[in-house]
């Protein structure tokens, strides 16, 4: 019981730090905010921040699902399932979850913050590479065709980039709730189209 309470307390502290950091980064830009400022705003010690987030970039990219989710989805899917079907369902699930929790409302600001920071751009490239590697490994566990598996992973990473750009076009600045739903619908249409192209290419 005591261990459970301690773990919950740690998770609450971590989430509080993450929320404060995200607010500061989106308001002022990633490079303009220091870890010490995040610690002060969250009312914790600097070392506490680093206990939860080893690097400053980890404070910003505090949603590992987008690069670990695809490999996990492949491993959890039935072996007879088509990998592209599995990846499309995983991507669609993630976009719907972002709408439900309100992430789409700040998506454009989030992307613009990345694009204005060399450090965040470098981290995003690194995590994209990690996504491709982990997804290739998961696919290799299902099929010995490494070349095809590598191609699927690379095409999925490219699809993510294209769909992110599509969402940036579809989302108005300061979108109202109905505009968010319209952007979500447009994105889902784009997801269907993009993954259909992947299927044809692989066939």
TrEMBL record:
Pfam families membership: TetR_N
Domain HTH tetR-type: 11-71
Keywords: DNA-binding, Transcription, Transcription regulation
DNA-binding residues: 34-53
Keyword Signal among record annotations: no
Annotated GO MF terms: DNA-binding transcription factor activity; transcription cis-regulatory region binding
InterPro entries cross-referenced by the UniProt entry: Homeodomain-like_sf (IPR009057), HTH-type_TetR-like_transc_reg (IPR050109), HTH_TetR (IPR001647)
Database matches in PANTHER family: HTH-TYPE TRANSCRIPTIONAL REGULATOR BETI, HTH-TYPE TRANSCRIPTIONAL REGULATOR RUTR
Protein name, per record: TetR/AcrR family transcriptional regulator
The organism of origin for this protein: Kribbella sindirgiensis
């Amino acid at each position: 019981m005591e261990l459970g309470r301690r773990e919950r307390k740690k998770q609450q502290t971590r989430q509080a730090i993450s929320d404060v950091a995200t607010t500061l980064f989106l308001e002022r830009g990633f490079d303009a905010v220091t870890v010490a400022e995040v610690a002060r705003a969250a009312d914790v010690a600097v070392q506490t921040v680093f206990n939860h987030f080893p690097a400053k970039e980890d404070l910003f990219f505090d949603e590992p699902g987008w690069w670990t989710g695809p490999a996990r989805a492949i491993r959890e899917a039935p072996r007879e399932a088509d990998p592209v079907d599995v990846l499309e369902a995983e991507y669609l699930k993630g976009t719907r979850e972002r709408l439900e929790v309100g992430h789409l409302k700040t998506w454009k600001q989030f992307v613009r913050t990345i694009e204005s920071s060399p450090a965040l751009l470098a981290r995003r490239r690194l995590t994209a590479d990690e996504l491709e590697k982990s997804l290739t490994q998961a696919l290799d566990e299902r099929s010995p065709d490494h070349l095809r598996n590598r191609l699927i992973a690379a095409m999925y990473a490219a699809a993510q980039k294209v769909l992110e750009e599509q969402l940036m076009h579809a989302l108005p600045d300061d979108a109202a709730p109905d505009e968010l739903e319209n952007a979500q619908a447009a994105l889902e249409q784009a997801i269907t189209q993009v993954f259909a192209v992947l299927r044809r290419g692989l066939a």
